[in-house]
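User: tokens in, sequence out, please.
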């Protein structure tokens, strides 16, 4: 699949509303906790799939966000991700 990495434009904007900051932190923690669909880029440019440890619960960013959207959790479900 072609990805537009050469003509890409990135934009930054401050997020000042506390609820939005909390939600962004929730999503970032979720993505970094994903042990079902996450890949890490190694220093040589190759990718390695993250493997779930036997004692870990399965965490899928896609499934968690779909569930969150379907059930409309409120407030932001930060407690779903353990540190």
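Assistant: Sequence out:
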């Amino acid at each position: 699949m072609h990805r537009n990495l050469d003509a890409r434009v990135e934009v930054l904007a401050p997020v000042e509303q506390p609820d939005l900051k909390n939600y962004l932190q929730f999503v970032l923690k979720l993505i970094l906790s994903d042990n079902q669909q996450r890949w890490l880029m190694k220093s040589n440019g190759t990718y390695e799939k993250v493997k779930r440890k036997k004692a870990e619960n399965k965490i899928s960013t896609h499934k968690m966000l779909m569930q969150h959207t379907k059930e409309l959790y409120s407030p932001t479900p930060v407690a779903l991700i353990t540190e």
